[in-house]
């Protein structure tokens, strides 16, 4: 490990000065908690006796929530419906200090909601309200203008693509235009099946399966050590060239992170998770930490190591979760 605790504290101390704009598909995550004591007489399914409920930011808004939890300033750019779920999500984000100036609200559009029913710390079922569609002209042009304006106020930008219609080429073009002019880092969490021209991006963070798919290469079985996984190394190099990115960071689950840089540097950061309970939202934590750290002056390997520790915290929690600076330092053992 090259990142020392003193350097980690220095970077974390700089986080509150960084404003990160997160652009993408905004969602509301609802959780219904309860216990199961019997099977329904109507069908062979458990009956969940509800004890409590909560709503949390999901999708791209969870990435912004992670930025705030780490101490950074966060703002979202996305589309919401003029409905109860959209109002709930706005209230949660505003209550957590996330900027909403980049929101476009549209009548007739249903806000994406994912409801998870959890009994005795086990997810029983997930119910999705998911009928998002691309924003049509002339609202799409207005949204790009809105994103460009908000991007000029940012120290770093994250593009979170969940394939729901918000992240389209004109939006990406607007972001990269501002980033090139301002010299700020742009990170992208890509979606397989979505071909976008993101040449010149600072950082992309696909997981292993996504990396193979986006490179157009059949996925192979992981090798014991990522630096000896020739198929993985080839895919990361191919994506680096395809996107002309400064860095490609491939998340590898229990194997940690593979970081490949344009200058030829190659690093494997082993996982720092002490206990894996739920991987929901871990990718959001990785890109939030990386871009926040890069904006604060971290090197790519320092950003990757910080992100790996943060991910190690959130996978030990149930549901989409976040990591605080205190939890990150505790995960480092300091």
Computed Rg: 20 Å
- Strand percentage, roughly? 25-35%
Largest sheet: 9 strands, mixed
| Overall geometry | globular
Tally of helical segments: 10
Structure write-up:
With 334 residues, the protein is an alpha/beta fold. It has a single domain (5-31, 58-116, 131-331), classed as UDP-N-acetylmuramoyl-L-alanine:D-glutamate ligase (3-Layer(aba) Sandwich), CATH 3.40.1190. The chain is 35% helix and 28% strand. It has helices spanning 5-14, 60-69, 84-95, 139-151, 169-182, 208-215, 230-243, 282-295, 300-314, 325-331, and strands spanning 19-24, 26-39, 46-59, 73-81, 99-106, 112-119, 122-129, 156-160, 186-189, 203-204, 247-251, 257-261, 266-269. The protein has a nine-stranded mixed beta sheet with strand order 5-4-1-8-9-10-11-12-13, with helices on both faces. A four-stranded mixed beta sheet has the order 3-2-6-7. α2 packs across α8 (282-295). The chain starts with a helix and ends with a helix.
List keywords for this structure.
alpha/beta, 10 helices, four-stranded mixed β-sheet, nine-stranded mixed β-sheet, 334 residues
In short:
This protein has 334 residues and is α/β, with parallel strands linked by helices.
Write the layout of secondary structure elements.
Blueprint: H1 5-14, E1 19-24, E2 26-39, E3 46-59, H2 60-69, E4 73-81, H3 84-95, E5 99-106, E6 112-119, E7 122-129, H4 139-151, E8 156-160, H5 169-182, E9 186-189, E10 203-204, H6 208-215, H7 230-243, E11 247-251, E12 257-261, E13 266-269, H8 282-295, H9 300-314, H10 325-331
Parallel strand pairs: 1-4, 1-8, 2-6, 4-5, 8-9, 9-10, 10-11
Antiparallel strand pairs: 2-3, 6-7, 11-12, 12-13
